[in-house]
Design brief:
heterodimer, A: mainly alpha, Histone, subunit A, Serine Threonine Protein Phosphatase 5, Tetratricopeptide repeat, two-stranded antiparallel sheet, elongated, B: alpha+beta, 4 domains, four-stranded antiparallel β-sheet, 20 helices, WD40_repeat_dom_sf (chain B), nucleus (chain B), repeat (chain B), transcription (chain B)
């Protein structure tokens, strides 16, 4: 800090003394600097005794008070003063004080009273070990300590579970098996998701999940509870799950593509598969960068199931759902190329005349629905990214396939009902693709004068032909396979183009 | 050289130095004698003298001269032999500040400033705070006014230097004829020359710090006798009734000499004894024998016993019983048996929490706020309220209009509250404030009982004595005062610190108090006589916290930079500096048996230090220059909560408190 003669002159002028002799300012400058330093020294003492490390305006006021001086006015900020550096000056700072409209201040509603001071207590350490609880700082300080201990001992790390953790583990596993629907289990899941201190339990939980899934393949509620448990663990940012993934993933994938999940018909194993698909995708997303072969491996095993015609339809369903959850790229490069041969297998299952078993037919329709959603989302994304490539129709790709249309027409209502009940659709909607719902609305509007499917079919070939030209080879035939249901997935923009 | 020119030089010199009358006399004499009598001394034949006289007349009053000769000396020192360099560099700092003050004193403000700025980098690392103070001194009147500068001017700095370095320095000064530097060095530095090799750089702290005028008196004061033992018939004593009486008597004799070796031996002995007795303890299940064994394992019995100089209050038997019960159930802590730490986090304080205090059993927590209020939380009741959630409001024991408030609000001060302390049984709270008063509050009545007026400036700290009734306070008015609860006037005033007294702490035997100050020293005062009996020099910044070991032998002090120093009270020497914190150490606390020291800091950590190893290993570490990081046992980081207060309960549970401060984005 340096108070110069010039600054003294400026200050003098600002308070109305225009004629200040140079001698005076020269004599005043060093003294002013000394006094300012003196006040600052006292202010710093006040700051220290207020147990702070940032100097605040009222520290200076108290320092002035010690010297029997008037306190400063207009600087009683409760927050720390933010100083801005003046542009083009290296060491000139100013207090960024914005103009406030008095009217606005007066008219502003009264602020809420600030919350009153209170106190909370927690364990910072128990017998010298810092417990990992949300109240403690979650940094690796603990693991550092552990590592150093490990070095000191020269022995393999002992795995010591504290009593609290043991009780925690016992309770959570007990609830998972018995009280899976209760609020207490839900709270336990929340705790699993957020608690930073659960790392020591991870091997136990993974082992538990693996064992119990094998044991309870026919118990739907337990399977669902276990999947929720796994998902909560995966969501916990403080848990390092990487070393245990190889143990956990097979169990999860089992829940996705197992032949039978639960024993009763009322068990909605579809829901479980959908849920698990999300979990698988989340896992791949979180640990994909650590394990580069995680995504390919998962995809491969799912694809294997998908392409195996001997597997049951629910298994196919789970595989497709899993791949859909893994992302559109997976769908585009893995599912779509295999769509045609697969549909050849699937369609007979859906047809009334071929498949007499209603349950089987229902399953086939569900698989068909999920395939359609997968393809449709692909189409949607594709169209969205290639809006400029629209060109006039060159050829009509629409083929009226009697075999296909007939069951579709007849079953249309049922299948769409089914679809709307399926979580994938909900999920898509929830993901914020609002255009889609509005698209559907527009579709509904445009369909008003075309109540009969025949008229509707007049419209659709043209549209699909228009779109068909610019997309991938695999996207062309989508309309072949799914018909105008695909229109649901065309973005609003294109649709308005046509309407 | 002819005599007339020499007379001329002398004349000029006298005038410059302001010896006007002497100059006049000389002129008169010259006039009278026409130079005849002066020639009787044979100036011309003494070339050295001529040179000296000439240099006197030439060099002075040229402000640039300071700069030149200082920079010459500096470059010489930097280019000197590595072995001696650090000793020679040590000389540079006093020379530097005195050159600066000389320049200021002669009114060359601009030159002084330029000089200061060009060389301050050299000394910033060690003496930053002093430099910041001196930087503001710009006129001769400031030199007079500022105590620090005055102290520097009046005193001599002691510098230990080996024979060879000293010779080198003298040779250099002689050879270059830099009389200016020689003058400064002679005037302000007191060399303590020793033979042999220079000491390695590690032991520098005392050597480098410039302590103003009190190094000499400090050495003198530190010769006084002190009796650091524990009180006869104290609780600890009663706990071990029938215990090792003979041992404690034996210990009494050697309290004063503070023989390090002896104490070391004893502490090792204790260690051995402890381990063997622990085994013994396991074998015997009987409660009586276990009790005896426990007492023997603790280090307490080895502390000598002294008589109380103050008339101590009589404790009620209930309170005493509960305290004894606590002591019996005390967990034994050591470097392998760590304590549990319970942390009290203040939330929504809006930067207003100035101090926090925890009662001896950890059940009450008081916070002093900058809005003049004191808030006392009863943690036991808070816990209940938490479990009884949903039931109707049971917390209106507070009595305030707002039934939902879960603390006791104590209003009475008219300025920020800087300190609060609980009486040992927890029935009273004392608070000190910027309004210069100390107030006594009853936690039973939730009301103010007494207002103690006496200090003239803000009272920074107040502490109850270990037995209650008496308390000590310290203030910006540079005094510490001893009070008793029943008198509104202080009983003793301890004056002597050169700057604010920032913290105060009682010795466990109540016969002494320790004070830490902004003058970077810690002093120990005799409560009965009010005399200063020890000065502890070594801190490099303001001392913020103090703690006394339960056996009364050691003291720990923490400063603004995060350094903690352990002192031996009898020798007034620093046993070891404990480095590790990187911000203000707000609070220190010894565990019940004195084996651990806890420190809480503004860097949002609580650290535990192994006291026994710090005291034992001193010699060994001196030899191999081991780092002292090993003595830090644990670091517990908090979640952005600076640690304001720490307290080991009588059962050795560590309580810590701090206000959550969200990092500003």
């Amino acid at each position: 800090m340096m108070v110069t003669k010039e600054s003294i002159e400026v200050i003098a002028q600002s308070i109305g003394i225009s004629t200040l002799s140079p001698d005076v300012s020269a004599a005043l400058a060093p003294d002013v600097e000394y006094r300012v330093r003196e006040v600052m020294q006292e202010a710093i003492k006040c700051m220290r005794h207020a147990r702070r490390t940032t100097l605040m305006a009222h520290d200076v006021d108290s320092a002035l008070h010690f010297r029997n001086l008037e306190p400063t006015c207009g600087f009683t900020s409760s927050k720390t003063v933010r100083l801005k550096r003046a542009p083009e000056h290296r060491d000139l700072y100013f207090f960024d004080d914005k103009d406030v409209e008095l009217k606005n201040v007066l008219e502003a509603p009264l602020l809420n009273a600030p919350p009153d001071a209170s106190i909370t207590s927690h364990w910072l350490a128990i017998d010298g070990i810092q417990p990992s609880i949300p109240q403690n700082s979650p940094v690796q300080a603990i693991s550092d300590v552990k590592r150093s201990e490990y070095k000191d001992d020269g022995l393999p790390a002992r795995h010591v579970l504290s009593k609290e953790l043991q009780i925690y583990y016992d309770k959570v596993t007990e609830w998972a098996l018995t009280l899976s629907g209760s609020t207490v289990f839900r709270q336990a899941l929340t705790s699993l998701e957020t608690d930073p201190g659960l790392h020591p339990l991870v091997p136990f939980f993974t082992c538990f999940i693996a064992e119990e899934i094998v044991r309870n393949m026919d118990n739907y509620p337990i399977l669902l509870a276990l999947m929720r448990l796994a998902r909560s663990l995966l969501h916990n940012p403080h848990v390092h799950l990487e070393p245990y993934l190889h143990q956990l993933m097979p169990s999860i994938i089992t829940c996705l593509i197992a032949k039978r999940l639960g024993k009763r018909l009322s068990d909605s194993h579809w829901d479980l598969r959908n849920f698990t698909a999300g979990t698988v995708a989340a896992t791949c997303k979180r640990f994909g960068h650590v394990y580069h072969n995680l995504l390919p491996r998962v995809t491969r095993s799912l694809l294997h199931t998908f392409l195996d015609p001997t597997k049951a339809l629910p298994q196919h369903y789970g595989a497709i759902q899993g791949m859909v959850a893994l992302g559109l790229n997976v769908v585009r490069f893995v599912v779509l190329p295999n769509l045609e041969p697969y549909l050849l297998l699937l369609l007979p299952e859906m047809a009334h005349e071929k498949q007499k078993d209603g349950a089987k037919r229902h399953e086939a329709w569900l698989v068909y629905g999920v395939l359609m959603v997968a393809a449709g989302r692909c189409l949607y994304e594709r169209l969205k990214t290639s809006q400029t490539l629209l060109s006039p129709p060159t050829r009509s790709v629409w083929k009226t396939d009697g075999k296909l249309t007939n069951p579709r027409q007849s079953k249309r209502k049922a299948s769409s009902d089914n679809l709307t009940h399926q979580p994938p659709l909900k999920k898509i909607a929830a993901e914020g693709i609002m255009q889609m719902s509005s698209t559907q609305m527009q579709m509904g509007l445009s369909a008003v004068p075309q109540q009969s499917p025949l008229v509707g079919r007049d419209v659709s070939p043209r549209t699909s032909a228009t779109l068909g030209t610019d997309v991938d080879n695999f996207l062309f035939p989508l309309f072949d396979y799914f018909g105008e249901s695909m229109l649901m997935f065309t973005p609003k923009h294109e649709l308005s183009f046509f309407l | 050289m002819d005599a007339e020119r020499i007379d001329e030089f002398v004349m000029v010199y006298l005038k410059k130095k302001g010896f006007d009358s002497a100059a006049k006399d000389l002129q008169l004499a010259l006039h009278h004698n026409n130079g005849s009598s002066f020639n009787s001394i044979d100036y011309p034949n003494d070339p050295e003298l001529t040179k000296l006289i000439r240099s006197f007349s030439q060099s002075d009053d040229h402000p640039t001269q300071y700069r030149e000769s200082y920079s010459k000396l500096r470059s010489w020192a930097y280019n000197s032999l590595d072995l001696y360099k650090h000793e020679l560099l040590r000389v540079m700092y006093p020379v530097f500040i005195h050159c600066y003050m000389d320049l200021v004193g002669k009114g060359h403000t601009q030159e002084a400033r330029a000089f200061f700025n060009s060389f301050r980098k050299d000394h910033e690392m060690i003496n930053l705070r002093d430099l910041q103070k001196l930087e503001g001194v710009l006129t001769p009147s400031h030199l007079e006014e500022m105590e620090f500068a005055r102290a520097l001017r009046q005193s001599k700095v002691n510098i230990k230097i080996c024979q060879y370095s000293y010779d080198l320095l003298l040779q250099y000064l002689h050879r270059t004829e830099s009389t200016l530097m020689l003058g400064i060095i002679n005037e302000h530095i007191n060399f303590q020359v020793y033979s042999g090799q220079p000491i390695s750089g590690s032991d520098d702290i005392e050597a480098v710090t410039i302590v103003g005028s009190f190094q000499e008196p400090a050495n003198h004061i530190n010769q006084k006798e002190i009796q650091w033992g524990l009180l006869e018939d104290s609780l600890d004593d009663r706990l071990e009734k029938g215990g090792l009486l003979s041992d404690s008597e034996k210990g009494q004799g050697e309290s004063k000499d503070g023989d390090m070796d002896d104490s070391k031996k004893r502490s090792i002995e204790v260690g051995k004894q402890g381990s063997s007795l622990k085994k013994l303890k396991k074998d015997k299940a009987g409660s009586a024998t276990a009790k005896v064994a426990r007492q023997e394992t603790s280090t307490v019995p080895l502390a000598p016993r002294v008589k109380a100089e103050l008339a101590l209050p009589v404790m009620s038997t209930d309170v005493e019983e509960s305290m004894l019960e606590d002591l019996r159930n005390r967990v034994q802590l050591s470097s392998v048996a760590m304590p549990s730490v319970s942390f009290y986090t203040f939330v929504n304080t809006h930067n207003g929490l100035n101090c926090a205090s925890i009662s001896h059993d950890g059940s009450l927590v008081a916070g002093g706020f900058s809005d003049s209020s004191i808030k006392v939380w009863d943690m036991a009741k808070l816990g209940q309220a938490g479990s009884l959630q949903g039931e109707n409001d049971t917390n209106d024991q507070i009595g305030g209009p707002n039934g939902r408030r879960n603390y006791t609000l104590l209003l009475g001060h008219s300025g920020p509250v800087y300190s609060a302390t609980f009486s040992p049984p927890g029935d009273f709270v004392l608070s000190s404030s910027a309004d210069t008063t100390i107030r006594l509050w009853s936690t039973k009545l939730n009301a103010n009982l007494v207002c103690y007026k006496g200090h003239n400036y803000p009272v920074w700290d107040v502490q109850f004595s270990p037995f209650g009734h008496y308390f000590a306070s310290c203030s910006h008015d540079r005094t510490a005062r001893i009070w008793s609860m029943d008198r509104v006037q202080p009983l003793r005033i301890m004056a002597g610190h050169l700057s604010d007294v920032d913290c105060v702490q009682w010795h466990p035997n109540c016969n002494y108090i320790a004070t830490g100050s902004s003058d970077k020293t810690v002093r120990l005062w005799d409560v009965q006589t009010g005399e200063c009996v020890r000065i502890f020099i070594g801190h490099r910044s303001m001392v913020l916290s103090l703690a006394m070991s339960p056996d009364g032998r050691y003291m720990a002090s923490g400063d603004e930079d995060g350094t903690i120093m352990m002192w031996d009270l009898s020798t007034a020497r620093c046993i070891t500096p404990l480095m590790g914190h990187n911000s203000c150490v707000w609070s220190l606390s010894y565990s019940g048996e004195g084996s651990l020291l806890a420190s809480g800091s503004a860097d949002c950590t609580v650290k535990l230090w192994d006291v026994t190893s710090s005291t034992k290993l001193t010699k060994a570490e001196e030899k191999n220059g081991n780092s002292n990081r090993l003595r830090s046992l644990r670091t517990f980081p908090t979640k952005s909560t600076p640690v304001h207060a720490l307290r080991f309960s009588r059962r050795n549970l560590l309580f810590a408190a701090g206000a959550l401060s969200k990092p500003e984005s």
